[in-house]
Amino acid sequence: MTAARSWRQFRLTMMAGDALVVVLTYALADFLRCTIYLGTDWPELLSNGQSSVRVHIKVLIFLPFVWPLLLMQLRAYALRWQTRHEIFSKTLLATLLLALFVAAAALVFERERFPRAQIAIFAALLPATTLAARGITLWILMWLSRQRLRNVLIVGTDRSAVRLRRLAQKTVFARAEIIGHLIAPWDGQHPAVDGRLIKDAGMTLESVLDGEVVDEVLISVPIESLALALPMVRTCEEMGVAVALQVDAFSRHGLPELTDLHGLPVMAFTPVRHPPELLAAKRLGDIVGSVIGIILTGPIMLACALLIRLTSRGPILFRQQRSGLNGRAFVMYKFRTMQRDAEDRRAEIAHLNESDGPVFKIRRDPRITRIGGILRRWSLDELPQLFNVLKGDMSIVGPRPPIPAEVAEYDRWQRRRLSMRPGLTCLWQVMGRHHIGFDEWMRLDLYYIDHWSLTLDALIVAKTVPTVLGGTGA
């Protein structure tokens, strides 16, 4: 069994174990609440003669799904090595978030009859039960891993091959016994590997596989020599030996994934390497957040529309084509804050542009109306974009949507900011947008894309609120 498959099985085992543990912990918390805290029989009988199980089941049904999702969002299932303190702190944070979820669910489903002490006892027990279950699972899988070491042959003798060997030896699951390094056609004259670990220079991959027990072959190859490694992959496939290529050289930002396209194996490279279930949760949050935002700001939007109509001629809404996800064109809505002929006058004031990139920004634009200046200061002009979020053209948090003409002037590395859905707010807006140059703006967007998480979205939204209330808009 390869290390990758072993890790996938371990992660699925952890997720299934966490789902089971959270249910059992919830039941244990209810048992302790009844027998110790209340001194009654378990399950508790309510005043109407029904069992308390009916009260808990509406909340309990969500826990096996929400708990692993929270841990996944906090990267508790990440492959990289984590310290004990990091594991413990992530578990505590996830427990706090789950307790808030249980409290919210209880208010929605069983506001009057749900026992408040249940949440406290449950939250106190969950970190201990989760970490105990994780430790037991880890110990069992490590014990199983030690029962049969994998004989691994590494093709390559450069520094990347040395690093590959060391990582393979450190793998907790599917432990590797390195049988040696095979000199590759792309290797230089001065190998970085200890000479004692290098196979005889005259040996080929076929001769090693014929003469020794090899469970897996790891190939360290630079991207320019990939064609030389493909025959080795075919050899391993023909002889029934697992083979893996080091993928660092293939992509900087996306991990390759082998998928099945109607029976045809395809290696896919995605620029945004985020779990699809978390992206689905982000989209669900966008829908809920936009609906709530539209309801709460409805009276404000009506007032803004009335002020625009009474103070200047022209349409209430300003519609402009923007570039969305992967360059898809969509119409973005804003309250009109400029005079009706603002677009026709753009060439007249082009010399006032304060941006150092292909964007057009003027803080004191002479085309802005008096009401428009107020709307911009408090970012009220962007409220109609909640409808763009609801439609799916935008997200609540994400890189700001550019104009197609600006995208046409992007450098190649800057176009990657289009690989995530554009948003109402972003890092650039909450980190002093008026004082940040264009290239730094682009790097902030790429940093957001590479490090995206639901937690980062929440932090950006939290920082956006005081920015808006402070009147530091455009």
Word description of this protein:
The chain is of the alpha/beta class and 474 residues long. The protein has 3 domains: 3-145, no CATH class; 149-250, NAD(P)-binding Rossmann-like Domain (Rossmann fold); 276-469, no CATH class. Helices cover 49% and strands 11% of the residues. α3 (63-73) runs antiparallel to α4 (84-109) and α4 (84-109) packs antiparallel against α5.
Q: What is the number of domains?
A: 3
Please give the share of residues in helix.
40-55%
Query: C-alpha Rg, in Å?
Result: 29 Å
In which order are the strands of the major sheet placed? 2-1-3-4
What is the 3D form?
Answer: flat
Number of strands: 10
- Helix and strand content put the structural class at alpha/beta
Order of helices and strands: HHHHHEHEHEHEEEHEEHHEHEHHH
**What integer is the average pLDDT?**
82
First-to-last CA distance = 57 Å
Number of helical elements: 15
What kind of sheet is the major sheet? 4 strands, parallel
Strand content: 5-15%
Low-pLDDT ranges: none
